[in-house]
Amino acid sequence: MSMLVVVTENVPPRLRGRLAVWLLEVRAGVYIGDTSKRIREMIWEQIDALAEEGNVVMAWATNTESGFDFQTYGDNRRIPVDLDGLRLVSFLPVKDQ
């Protein structure tokens, strides 16, 4: 079991409802829980199937040097990068409006 955090933006209500079955929604679109790897993977399958045009980040505790890992779904200015085995976040430039 490990701590899991899921942050959603602009996802359909049915996904939010599905996440609330396994995790506690502590703020709008922010879910936390203590889950096994199998449940975490099943939750990600639901995100992949139901998030549509929204975006999601899922982070969980691991025994890596940083103490956590994460994955993302959908378009966002923040994109994950791997730097010598360390997961970091890079920012894309702001689009002209």
Task: Give a verbal description of the structure.
Pfam families: Cas_Cas2CT1978. Strands 2-3-1-4-5 form a 5-stranded antiparallel sheet, covered by helices on one side. A two-stranded antiparallel sheet has the order 6-7. The protein has a single domain, classed as Alpha-Beta Plaits, CATH 3.30.70. The chain has helices spanning 13-22, 37-50, and strands spanning 2-9, 24-27, 30-35, 55-61, 68-73, 78-83, 86-91. The protein is an alpha+beta fold. The longest helix is centred in the middle third of the chain and has 14 residues, at 37-50. It contains 2 helices and 7 strands.
Q: How would you sum up this structure in a few lines?
A:
With 97 residues, the chain is of the alpha+beta class. 25% of the residues lie in helices and 44% in strands.
Low-confidence stretches: none
Mean pLDDT: 91
Strand order of the largest sheet: 2-3-1-4-5
Evaluate the radius of gyration: 14 Å
User: Tally the helices: what do you get?
Assistant: 2
Strand content: 35-45%
CATH domain topology: Alpha-Beta Plaits
Helical residues, percent: 10-25%
Counting helices, strands and paired strands, the structural category is alpha+beta
CATH C-level category: Alpha Beta
The general outline is globular
- Per DSSP E runs of 2 or more residues, the count of β-strands stands at 7
N/C terminus separation = 44 Å
Largest sheet, in brief, is: 5 strands, antiparallel
InterPro entries: CRISPR-assoc_prot_Cas2_sub
Protein name: CRISPR-associated protein, Cas2
